[in-house]
Amino acid sequence: MTAESRPRKPRQRSTSRSGNAPQPADPTRDVAFDILCGVVENRRMLENSLSRAATDHHAPPRDRAAAHRLAAATLRHMGTLRTLLEPFLRKEPPEPVRVALMMGCAQLLFLETPPHAAVGTTVSLLRRRKLAPFAGLANAVLRKVADQGPALLEGLDQSRLNIPQWLWSSWNGLGRGVPRAIARGISHEAPLDITLRPGAIAPEGGELLPNGSVRLPAGTRVTELPGYEEGAFWVQDAAATLPARLLNAQPGEHVADLCAAPGGKTAQLAATGAQVTAVEQNPNRLTRLRENIARLNYPVEVVEADATTWKPNVLQDAILLDAPCSATGTARRHPDVLWVKRPRDLTALVAGQDAMLEAAKAMLKPGGRLVYAVCSLQEEEGPARARAALAMGWQASPFTPEELPFLPEAITPEGWLRTHPGMWADKGSMDGFFAARFIRPAD
Ligand SMILES: C[S@@+](CC[C@H](N)C(=O)[O-])C[C@H]1O[C@@H](n2cnc3c(N)ncnc32)[C@H](O)[C@@H]1O
Fold it and tell me: Catalytic positions (predicted)?
């Protein structure tokens, strides 16, 4: 039974102003509901709503984590849930009511919540949120879904329904069958991947992946693993380890990590013995980066700066540019990305990526190496940026399959890296990354 499916003991009671009986408090579902309304109604990213909602509802860490998983499960199956509910709704309900119904359905169909709990808590939620007139509808609809839902699911093309049309079409360019493979990869909660500090011992129960990452079951709380406080490892998806690996930093080299927070790639670079400078602009993320580097105790210089204007004291031997992007490659960990991002968001992101590619030239020694990386599946942010870099005067330095002997299929004919959530399907999948390597030509 998952954390969010456990029947909860009412801790306090809140009285609805609609004149109904007092409703039991349920911070898990209150927080999940707020997160989902933020995504669906305001295109707000899950992480941006979570802290505020958890504070508003006085949700302790356990409820916060359960709310996160419940909201993520609803978002992961949202296309399916909308379609499945359609025949049970004679009139279009207000969007918050639909959100509550989808959350109830997700519990019934994907989280093994007992029907009485899924139905009862949804009815209570609507009453707490001044949506009491829809409580009867929710009761009737969710009871029907509990009965008929599993059979109805079998007739639905869930992979197709759970991916917005514009993303599905954009992924067709990745190859025949790839959009469906990606959709399948996204449909499961992602496991926890960690990268071990050299010489550290893997926590018990972890699976060693071919790239050296250690994979733990979804829902594992990283801070509770032995070795976390001592800095024995850091959180990093298996695919996210590849760009820094392909930069091939050497002991003593000056290496800049542009756009560094929360610092997974910074840690990888520091572990090689290179002299690493981590550049990050966002103050909140900078704090996380500093905390992570302090926990890992690596001698990294952390700089608060804009990567488009930062000037290093010495020209660098190598640069990793992990540019801000649409993050569509991380949809299995952040399914809100699917419903928050729009095609028009790409314009500003692409302009920023080009500005960083241009600026990085002046930071590097002639002959120095640059790896450009994005956790995006979008052509505009990947191959198109690699071509733009060549037009800016960068010289191509293609990756070879021999550099990734455990994943040669991720190296494209152009010598770029392309991973996606359809890869390593038998092992629990991986995030989508694009990377390309360049050399700064001699002047
Ligand atoms: C994809 S994330 C980096 C992930 C990181 N490299 C890692 O492996 O943990 C992109 C980061 O770029 C930062 N960023 C965005 N614009 C920036 C800029 N102009 N200069 C420096 N950092 C920037 C964001 O705050 C964010 O932390």
Answer: 375 (nucleophile)
